[in-house]
């Protein structure tokens, strides 16, 4: 029978929630990496037992953790479980090392971007926001980091190398941090074209490579951001998240700072699909596993009030690819609710009856086993949830 | 032997207790102690000092013998009591945040 494994990153550790295909009874793990911020965990599509985790701390910096047994045990890549040191000073601890590319052969690496005050500011590594394992190779994984850049490891997370063509393509000095920092938070691998990768940065916008990460270009035409000096600028847009259904890799859905958008041409052009949403500010967006025109968002009141609108936790679903939205409220609190749902905190499983999952800053993780018609909390009292991913297991 | 006291989260990461003892060759300085600590516990690389610049991370401080040594030169000799093992070299996290 099928099973699901939900990977939850929180402000104070990671939790693994498991259930059978009914998704009614859940086992909730003890905290992993207790006390640390877990920005993101994600399993390899090529080997579900391989899970990568970003463990981070304002005090101690960035740690990459890896599990090869479905989250039962963890180790820093390069350091076998239970072993602390290696023979001959083996370079363990390298997995924590994210160093911006300054090599001559990769062009003219940038050293500054725009800061909050408009001045140029040096690039400084802070943390890994998002880990995206390869669709085909368990040892290849991408990392989206703050200050914005994309790194790749091809040895299971031991060593990381920047794909510096992104920072170096020309618009980097115009990128600036959003309120949460200048983070590269979205990485989407095109299942039909191994050379094509989409990424998004807050607040720079969306970008695409068609040659495996060597060359990149902005894909923000159609975005309108009234809060920046040039609302239709090539870069500078605060994209919060992008989602794609693997069956239609050229169709993208975006939750921007304000505005919900879609592109039908791999990001070359975007159009607004906010329609009848009560507010089109928000962070998460996702697509039904089997219905590529069914999308989900959680509207947030405003950029100044980061909680759900009218004290009601409502997921909005469109079955028409946008513009026409319905509120999904069955099982969700409809009064006195003031939580947020952060950008990586929604996921879908691929069971026949598609399951939708999301986590809140109030520590609840909700599941709908019927594509959003009804919801139930899996767990109510975790630390603030930063990310939710789900693995559908045979 | 040099005694080093680590903050709780680094103890967990390195799978050690509150205090570790390490052999340090040559002059006993912040740099030589931290080099030896990271060689013995490589998972701590980058968590106390920046990987590249080897600068102390902003929210960590170094103490020994009731003195804040955080702003001392990394190559300055540590107090004799640390070098002889009578007192520990303490890595401490700033009390900030939740």
Q: Would you mind describing this structure in some detail?
A:
The complex is a heterodimer of chains A (394) and B (98). Chain A has one helix at residues 165-168; strands spanning 3-10, 13-20, 27-28, 37-43, 51-57, 61-67, 112-114, 120-122, 127-133, 141-146, 149-153, 161-162, 183-189, 197-202, 205-209, 217-218, 239-244, 252-256, 260-263, 271-272, 281-287, 295-300, 315-318, 326-328, 346-348, 356-359, 365-368, 376-379, 385-393. With 394 residues, chain A is mostly beta strands. Chain A has a domain at 36-80 and 93-237: Methylamine Dehydrogenase, Chain H, CATH 2.130.10.10. Chain A starts with a strand and ends with a strand. Chain A contains one helix and 29 strands. In chain A, the strands form eight sheets. In chain A, strands 3-2-1-29 form a four-stranded antiparallel β-sheet, with no helix packed on it. Chain A has a four-stranded antiparallel β-sheet with strand order 9-10-11-12, with no helix packed on it. With 98 residues, chain B is α+β, with helices and mostly antiparallel strands. Chain B has helices at residues 8-14, 30-40, 80-83, and strands at 2-5, 19-22, 60-64, 67-68, 89-93. Chain B is globular. Classes of the chains: A mainly beta (394), B alpha+beta (98). The A-B interface holds A 34-36, 57-63, 76, 79, 84-86, 89-94, 96-97, 99 and B 7-10, 12-15, 38-48, 50-52, 57, 59-60, 93-94, 96-97.
The span between the termini of chain B is: 35 Å
- Secondary-structure class of chain B: alpha+beta
Written as H for each helix and E for each strand, in order along the chain, the element string of chain A is EEEEEEEEEEEEHEEEEEEEEEEEEEEEEE
Task: Please report the first level of CATH classification, the CATH class of the domain at 36-80 and 93-237 in chain A.
Answer: Mainly Beta
Summarize this structure briefly.
The complex is a heterodimer of chains A (394) and B (98). Chain A is mainly β and 394 residues long.
């Amino acid at each position: 029978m099928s099973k699901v494994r939900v990977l939850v990153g929180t402000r104070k550790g990671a939790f693994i929630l498991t259930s059978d295909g009914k998704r009614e009874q859940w086992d909730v793990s003890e905290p992993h990496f207790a006390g640390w911020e877990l920005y993101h965990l994600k399993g390899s599509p090529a080997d579900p037992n391989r899970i990568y985790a970003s463990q981070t701390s304002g005090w101690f910096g960035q740690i990459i953790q890896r599990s090869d047994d479905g989250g039962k045990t963890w180790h820093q890549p390069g350091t076998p479980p239970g072993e602390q040191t290696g023979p001959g000073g083996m370079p363990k601890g390298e997995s924590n090392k994210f160093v911006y590319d300054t090599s001559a052969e990769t062009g003219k690496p940038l050293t500054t971007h725009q800061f909050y005050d408009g001045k140029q500011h040096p690039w400084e590594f802070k943390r890994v926001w998002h880990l995206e394992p390869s669709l085909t190779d368990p040892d290849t994984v991408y990392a989206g980091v703050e200050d914005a850049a994309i790194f790749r490891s091809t040895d299971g997370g031991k060593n990381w190398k920047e794909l510096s063509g992104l920072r170096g393509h020309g618009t980097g000095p115009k990128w600036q941090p959003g309120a949460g920092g200048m983070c590269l938070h979205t990485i989407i691998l095109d299942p039909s074209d191994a050379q094509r990768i989409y990424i998004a940065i807050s607040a720079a916008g969306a970008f695409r490579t068609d040659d495996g990460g060597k060359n990149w270009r902005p894909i923000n035409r159609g975005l309108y951001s009234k809060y920046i000096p040039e609302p239709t600028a090539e870069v500078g847009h605060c994209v919060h998240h992008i989602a794609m259904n693997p069956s239609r890799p050229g169709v993208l859905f975006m939750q921007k700072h304000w505005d919900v958008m879609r592109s039908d041409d791999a990001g070359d052009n975007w159009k607004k699909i906010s329609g009848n949403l009560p507010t089109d500010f928000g962070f998460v967006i996702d697509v039904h596993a089997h219905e590529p025109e069914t999308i989900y968002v959680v509207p947030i009141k405003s950029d100044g009030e980061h909680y759900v609108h009218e004290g009601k936790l409502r997921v909005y679903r469109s079955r028409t690819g946008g513009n026409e939205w319905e509120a999904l409220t069955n099982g969700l609190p409809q009064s006195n609710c003031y939580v947020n749902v952060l950008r990586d905190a929604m996921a879908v499983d691929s069971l026949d009856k598609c399951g939708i999952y999301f986590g809140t800053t109030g520590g609840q993780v909700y599941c709908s086993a019927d594509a959003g018609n009804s919801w139930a909390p899996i767990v109510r009292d975790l630390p603030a949830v930063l990310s939710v991913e789900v693995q559908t297991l045979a | 032997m040099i005694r080093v006291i680590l903050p709780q989260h680094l103890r967990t990461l390195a799978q050690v207790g509150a205090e570790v003892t390490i052999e340090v060759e040559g002059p006993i300085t912040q740099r030589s102690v931290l080099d030896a600590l990271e060689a013995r516990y490589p998972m701590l690389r980058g968590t106390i000092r920046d990987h590249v610049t080897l600068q102390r991370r902003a929210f960590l401080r170094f103490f020994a013998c009731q003195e804040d040594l955080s702003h001392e030169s990394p190559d300055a000799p540590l107090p004799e009591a640390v070098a002889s093992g009578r007192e520990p070299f303490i890595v401490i996290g700033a009390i900030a945040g939740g």
